[in-house]
Each structure stands twice: as structure tokens, then as C-alpha cells.
Amino acid sequence: MKYKLNFSPKVNVSAPPITGALVGPAAPAFFAWQPSTWPVTPAAVDEPFIYALKQIFEESILGEINNVIADVHRSNGDLQNRGHVLAISIMCALDAIACYGYRKHHFADFIVAHFPADYHAHAVQIFELYRNSLIHSWNLFEASIYPDDSRVRMEGGTLAFGLLNFFGALVQGTGDFLERLAIDPELQKNTLARYDKLKRTAKP
User: What pLDDT shows up at residue 162?
Assistant: First the structure.
């Protein structure tokens, strides 16, 4: 896979703000977490644009979550009693990434198009029971998450999956999205429009 995500440490000796707008003189470097430094929107999707998008997803979204998961494992041994906020951030990450390529039903459409096949049939339920419940009500009321890598499944009429399995599916799905972006005109049109809209809102 050409655009497979890589969470290995990146060497960077500068110290700009860790997120948000730059304070002081604008830095010429590209910082994934600072949209004002993102490359100008190209006229058409090309390889440099896809690599820039990959870096944004890799460093400022999924890599941040991956770091927290690693920290929790080091300090706690596993995600037991520590996965709730991670689950919320993972749902937000999927929502943010899916908005680039898809429109009206972006969250569920992204799962069907890019997640492993065992998640496809549950895409709408994941949106309704997980994304909406966690983001809007902070808790799950009709579904379950386990602090492990267990696969998605129905348990006595209740949808369940392991948090690590879902995160792995999101990482894999994001790589698949970037691969398809190189050849899919509709994804290209939507992604350029979304990227340009976000880039234009960034305070220099």
C-alpha cells in the first residue's frame, strides 16, 4: 500500500504551538496540526497533495490517538477503565476524516467504503449508537466497547467491538481512502473542496 500510515517518531527540532493558529511570525514549514501552514489547495489531486493529507491524518489526528493508547498501555497495562475518552476521540477522528471524501452520510459511507468487511453491515448502527451517543451524550446506552482487539459482533442483540480493533480498522480505512483518492474523481472533487474550505478558515 503506497499511502499506508506510519506512526514512527518524526524528527522535528522546532517548537511552534502544538495546535491551532501560529503566534508571532509565520513559519514557512508545514505543520500538520496548523492549517495555516498547509500547502495551497492544488488545482487537481496529485501525489504531493495526497502525501500532505496523509501527514495531516497521520500526525495531527490518528498519530495523536495512537500516542495516547501507547501511554495508557505503559501506565495502566491495558485500556480497562481508560478507554472512554479514547472512544470519543476515535469517533471524532473518523467523523473528521470521513468529511473529506463524503457528504450527507459521510460517517457511515466511509465505513462501508474503507473499513474491513465485517464492519460494513453495522455502519449506520455505529453512527447512531456510538458516534452520536458518545459525542452528544458522553456515554453508550445501546451498545458496548471492549478494551481489547476483539472483532465487531452482535452479543444478544447488542452491537459490540474492541476499541483497539476499531482503531485499527480506522487506520487501515484511512490508508485505503488515500489509495482510492489517487484514482476516484468523485473522492477527489469532494476532498479538494473540503480541504480548500478548511484551509481558507485558517488564521495566518
Answer: 94
